[in-house]
């Protein structure tokens, strides 16, 4: 039998877990996309050595599991003298992870900008920074916006793993509740639904944001 | 207390890698089978069937794999279905893999022009004949690269099975770490082994993509 009502008294536990997950998601989404933008720009327009460095970073992260990256940062780095709290470790791990994936996505956007536009900007006397911010970035991001946002949602779902280093996120709350009242199925089921709601909500938020960011399309 | 030499560490990790590979294969085969069934359901153009597939994809793409594993492992046994860590890992990874593969394959089938379905209909081919002789041969060519690419996600997904106590590469890594207190070395090795498993697949997927783009 299922007893979902047993979970009601723990609603504040779930809510504070939800809050941590949302906070970390918002923070790492912003940091990860910024990191990805910088790396993608270097990968596309930088010199050969820096391109190589970015490629190695991207391939290393994309071909290893997130949980191993997290353990490496949380358990491995203190061994060489970098002490990190669980929260800091998971923030760094999530940012580095999203950074690698978004580098690959954003680079595809940068590559899709035709060379003529960059040459035209040069002829008009824009310097490289101006060309990037005024000519390249907006259409490049518009093109890859759906892929980028779904990657952000995937990273949000992946953040469930950080409960393993005792960050008190939503999954941690689920584990805590089921260890108190032994209602494992109910607890995990409700948590899964909360994650589902969060991912649907995020998608709506990203769509609304996209409409604002790329509003110039509608006006001309 | 047992001393672990570098050789012991490596030997144990290699042993665990076999289980990671086996779990990945099982999940990939299971996921492909379920995804094929779901794709067939979607192609029938029956609205009810299509809705089922949509909900399935939304459900398993919109929730964390870890949560699916917990539900399969702790949840099912609380409901009275005894399930081993191995069974729970395969079950949840199959669900996860199939939800993503259905979406990937949907994109591949949708790139084929609709006129081909109509033309086959005019030629008197049945639904299954159209699928067998017209659609699948083309769709498979498009789908191979992203499917191989996704197999990397499956291998990485198996790392989560360590959380429910299935002894694979990551779990042996944490166990060795507890015994040796050399986290830097051990997790570097674990990451490198995963990299050696995944990177060739990534490269192969990229190669296939290029090959396909040339022929187009």
UniProtKB/TrEMBL annotation, chain A:
CDD domains: TM_PBP2 (cd06261)
The entry's keywords: Amino-acid transport, Cell membrane, Membrane, Transmembrane, Transmembrane helix, Transport
Record field: transmembrane: 24-46, 66-84, 144-167, 187-206
UniProt key word Cell membrane: yes
Gene3D superfamilies linked: MetI-like
Record bears the keyword Transcription: no
Name used for this protein in its record: Amino acid ABC transporter membrane protein 1 (PAAT family)
From TrEMBL, chain B:
SUPFAM superfamilies, per the entry: MetI-like
Family: Belongs to the binding-protein-dependent transport system permease family. HisMQ subfamily.
Keywords: Amino-acid transport, Cell membrane, Membrane, Transmembrane, Transmembrane helix, Transport
Protein name: Amino acid ABC transporter membrane protein 2 (PAAT family)
BP GO annotations: amino acid transport
Organism phylogeny: Bacteria, Pseudomonadati, Pseudomonadota, Gammaproteobacteria, Oceanospirillales
Sequence ranges assigned to domain ABC transmembrane type-1 in this UniProt record: 17-205
A cellular component term, taken from the record's GO annotations: ATP-binding cassette (ABC) transporter complex
Transmembrane segments annotated in the record for this chain: 20-43, 55-77, 83-105, 142-166, 186-204
Superkingdom of this protein's organism: Bacteria
Entry's localization field: Cell inner membrane; Cell membrane
GO MF term set: transmembrane transporter activity
Membrane association type: Multi-pass membrane protein
Record-linked Pfam families: BPD_transp_1
Database matches in PROSITE patterns: ABC_TM1
Chief localisation class: membrane
